[in-house]
Design goal:
The chain is α/β, with parallel strands linked by helices. The protein has two domains: 137 residues, NAD(P)-binding Rossmann-like Domain (Rossmann fold); 274 residues, 2-Layer Sandwich (Dihydrodipicolinate Reductase, domain 2). The chain is 35% helix and 20% strand. The chain contains 14 helices and 15 strands. The strands form two sheets. The chain has a nine-stranded mixed sheet, sandwiched between helices. α6 packs antiparallel against α13 and α8 packs across α13. The longest helix has 26 residues. The protein is globular and about 75 Å long. Keywords: Carbohydrate metabolism, Glucose metabolism, NADP, Oxidoreductase.
C-alpha cells in the first residue's frame, strides 16, 4: 500500500508568533516535512511575523535549528532544507500598533491563497483581524487559523466570534484543534461509516458504555500561569475530549463535507444532558520523588484549579439514550496515553456456564502514543481441559500493520495546515459549535463553583483521585487501565 501525496496550490503563509514555541516545535518542522514529501511545491512564501528584532537570515537560522531539533534526519536532507529555508522571510510586526504592516502587505501576494496563522495569545486575535482588514489583507482568498483557547467561557467565546466575524466570513476562519488532525481520529469516521460490521451495533442496544481517556504523564511545566487560570476542564475537556465524544456519538452525515460533518457534531453537543454535581470529580496532583506538586509548579499555594477531571455524560437522543459516556483527563498520571474504548454489552445468555467467566467485546481506538485500533474478541483457550474462554485482541497497530514507512503519518499540524491551504474545514470547529460546547462546560464549572469544593489530591503516577474510580464503581463498571 502506497500513500498518495497530492500537492497543494502555491500559497503565502504568515505565522504571527513566528518565533514562538508552537512555530518552533510544530509549525516550521511540519511545513518542512510536507515540503520533503512533495506536498509543497512551486512559488511558496512563508513569513514569520513577531515583535522581536530579527532579519530574514536570522529567521532562516532559527527555522533550521528548530527543524534539526525536531527531525534527526534533517541533516541528511541538506538540499531540501536549503530549498525550504529559501522560502522563509521575516517581518517585525506590532499586533497592537502600525509598525511592520505596510511591509507585510507588500510581501504578501494577492494573486494566490493567503493564510494567516494566529499563533499568539487570544487577546491579540481581534487586533490582528482588524489590522489585516485595514491593510487590505482580508479578501476572499484570505484564511485565518486561530489557535485555542477560543475564549474561557460562553461570553468570551461569543465576543471572540463577533470580533472575527466583523472582518472575515465564517468560511475563512479555521479554529484549529490538533486532536482532529490525528490519523486515528479520522480513522474513527472510516471505521464507523465505511464498515457495515460496526454501524448497526453503534447504539445503546449493543453498547454498554464508552470511555474516553486523555492522560498525560507530565505536569503543567512552563504553562503554569495559563493553566492555573484554565484548568483541565477548560484546557482539555471542553475542546479535545468534547470533539472525540462528538465523533463517537454523531449520526452519519449526508455527505463527507465540512458543514455536513459539523452539523452532526453540533447536534450531539445540543443533546448532552446537564452533568449532575455527583457525576464530576476534580483532582490536583501532589509532589513526590523530587517532582513538585501542582501548587508549587504554578506558584500558588492556595490554588483550587483542577489538573484532573472525570465526569459522566449522557447524550439524550434515540441512538444513545441510557448509554453513559465516561470522560477523564489529567496531568501527572501513570502514562501518556489517549484512547477511546467502546465497551459492548454482554451476550444475552452464556451457554458456557459461570466457570467460563465474564467476557466482553471492546473496540479500542488508540490515539497516542501508539496509534492503532484493537478489537477484543472472546475465543476458546487452546489446549485440553474443557471450554475455557479468554479474550484476545485483533490488533491493528498502524506501525506493525502498515510497516514503518506507511505508518510514518504526518503530524496533526501538518495535515491541518495543508487542509487550510486546500480550503477544507471538515476538521476545524465552527463558531456555533464552539459556543455550544462552552454553554455545556459553563454549567459544569458553575456547579462545582457553587459547591465551593476543592479538587481532591492524587499521587503523581496514579490514575487520579480515588473518587474518580468510584464514579464508575457505583455503576458496576471500571475504568480501563492507563497504559501506553
Amino acid at each position: 500500500m502506497v500513500s498518495r501525496v497530492i500537492p497543494v496550490d502555491p500559497f503565502d503563509l504568515v505565522i504571527f508568533g513566528g518565533t514562538g514555541d508552537l512555530a518552533r516545535r510544530k509549525i516550521l518542522p511540519g511545513l518542512f516535512r510536507r515540503y520533503c514529501a512533495g506536498q509543497i511545491e512551486g512559488d511558496v512564501r512563508i513569513t514569520g511575523a513577531a515583535r522581536g528584532e530579527m532579519d530574514t537570515q536570522g529567521y532562516r537560522d532559527f527555522a533550521a535549528e528548530a527543524i534539526m531539533a525536531s527531525d534527526q534526519s534533517a541533516g541528511t536532507k541538506k538540499a531540501h532544507l536549503d530549498e525550504f529555508l529559501a522560502m522563509l522571510h521575516y517581518v517585525v510586526v506590532d499586533a497592537m500598533g502600525d509598525d511592520g504592516w505596510e511591509e507585510l502587505a507588500r510581501i504578501t501576494r494577492s494573486d494566490r491563497i493567503r493564510a494567516f496563522y494566529f499563533s499568539v495569545a487570544p487577546r491579540l486575535f481581534g487586533p490582528l483581524a482588524e489590522r489585516l482588514h485595514q491593510h487590505g489583507l482580508a479578501d476572499g482568498q484570505t484564511r485565518i487559523v486561530v489557535e485555542k483557547p477560543f475564549g474561557r467561557d460562553l461570553k468570551t467565546a461569543r465576543e471572540l466570534n463577533r470580533v472575527l466575524a466583523e472582518h472575515f466570513d465564517e468560511s475563512q476562519i479555521y479554529r484549529i484543534d490538533h486532536y482532529l488532525g490525528k490519523e486515528t481520529v479520522q480513522n474513527l469516521m472510516a471505521i464507523r461509516f465505511g464498515n457495515m460490521l460496526f454501524e448497526p451495533l453503534w447504539n445503546s442496544q449493543y453498547v454498554d458504555h464508552i470511555q474516553i481517556t486523555v492522560a498525560e504523564a507530565v505536569g503543567v511545566g512552563g504553562r503554569g500561569d495559563y493553566y492555573d487560570r484554565a484548568g483541565a476542564m477548560r484546557d482539555m475537556m471542553q475542546n479535545h475530549l468534547m470533539q472525540l465524544l462528538c465523533l463517537i456519538a454523531m449520526e452519519p452525515p449526508a455527505k463527507f463535507n465540512p458543514d455536513s460533518v459539523r452539523d452532526e457534531k453540533l447536534k450531539v453537543i445540543r443533546a448532552l444532558d446537564p452533568v449532575a454535581p455527583d457525576d464530576v470529580v476534580r483532582g490536583q496532583y501532589e509532589g513526590s520523588g523530587g517532582r513538585p506538586s501542582y501548587r508549587n509548579q504554578v506558584g500558588n499555594r492556595d490554588s483550587t484549579t483542577e489538573s484532573f477531571v472525570a465526569l459522566r455524560a449522557r447524550v439524550s437522543n434515540w441512538r444513545w439514550a441510557g448509554t453513559p459516556f465516561y470522560l477523564r483527563t489529567g496531568k501527572r498520571l501513570k502514562e501518556r496515553a489517549s484512547e477511546i474504548a467502546v465497551v459492548f454489552k454482554d451476550a444475552p445468555h452464556s451457554i458456557f456456564g459461570e466457570e467460563a467467566g465474564r467476557h466482553r467485546n471492546i473496540l479500542t481506538i488508540k490515539l497516542q502514543p501508539n496509534e492503532g485500533i484493537e478489537l477484543g474478541v472472546t475465543i476458546k483457550e487452546p489446549g485440553p481441559g474443557g471450554m475455557r474462554l479468554v479474550d484476545v485482541p485483533l490488533d491493528m497497530t498502524f506501525a506493525e500493520a502498515l510497516g514503518p514507512e506507511e505508518a510514518d503519518f504526518p503530524d496533526a499540524y501538518e495535515r491541518l495546515i495543508m487542509d487550510v491551504i486546500r480550503g477544507n474545514q471538515t476538521l476545524f470547529m465552527r463558531g456555533d459549535e464552539v459556543e455550544e460546547a462552552w454553554a455545556w462546560a459553563d454549567e459544569v464549572i458553575a456547579g462545582w463553583e457553587k459547591r465551593g469544593d476543592d479538587p481532591l489530591p492524587y499521587a503523581t503516577g496514579s490514575a487520579g483521585p480515588d473518587d474518580a474510580l468510584m464514579l464508575m464503581h457505583r455503576d458496576g463498571r471500571r475504568w480501563r487501565e492507563i497504559k501506553a
